């Protein structure tokens, strides 16, 4: 690989494409053609830069004949890999993800959601003189924020939450090898949910985590819990969440992700006053393409020199 000028298929748009084309390895950058399936690669492509929601959801169950021939590296613009068919991670080629690229933007979204909930931002908006009234608003100081997942997103959320005086607890599937300043480690999600005023889902969707937030966990949660999901909709049993909110056990939810996306017309989440839906945009920021291109260029540096790449996806865990 070292010393060669790779042929790269770019499915990430012109900002990334222009930056990659200027790399010292002098790659040949092919742009994705509209209407072409993302797995239908031109001959000779060595590196694939791809992202979800460009047709991967319609991928066949088995890899197409000849898939992956000559392909050495796939870089995803997403952190989660659940949008892709399982065969994308089987064997060669190497797959890397954009772990942490959107962490700051997502953390800002989470803090916004918590502030809006505590300060009752919608309820106190005045639309007519009769709405004028004084109410006691909530506070972040002294409340507990629970983080289900403590990777780059969890760390970015914790940093901001601590500045607002929140107590922060977290669970992580990989376990705890040492202390994290200001963060109380929890061994079980059930215990974290029972102790938290706000619970943030920031973990990957895998076979082990699908439906993790169900009726049992919600029943064990602290009364009045506010759930924030910036990960994947399928982590949550949505019928159980709706029932828990309507029973009064759960005070509300901020959901940037649902299952499916978008939810069908008439779904009760759209009209429920205790549920705020946003269209899977927590990751977005004006500098996202630049940050993504920076990450890819760093990996391209390593690739051109035959060195290990960053953020390699573990095929066994799926993230």
From TrEMBL:
InterPro entries: D-isomer_DH_NAD-bd, NAD(P)-bd_dom_sf
GO molecular function, one term: oxidoreductase activity
Keyword terms: NAD, Oxidoreductase
Taxonomy, superkingdom: Bacteria
Domain D-isomer specific 2-hydroxyacid dehydrogenase NAD-binding: 127-282
Cited PANTHER family: 2-HACID_DH_C DOMAIN-CONTAINING PROTEIN (PTHR43333), D-ISOMER SPECIFIC 2-HYDROXYACID DEHYDROGENASE NAD-BINDING DOMAIN-CONTAINING PROTEIN (PTHR43333:SF1)
Name of the protein this chain belongs to: Glyoxylate reductase (NADP(+))
Species name: Azospirillum lipoferum
Species lineage: Bacteria, Pseudomonadati, Pseudomonadota, Alphaproteobacteria, Rhodospirillales
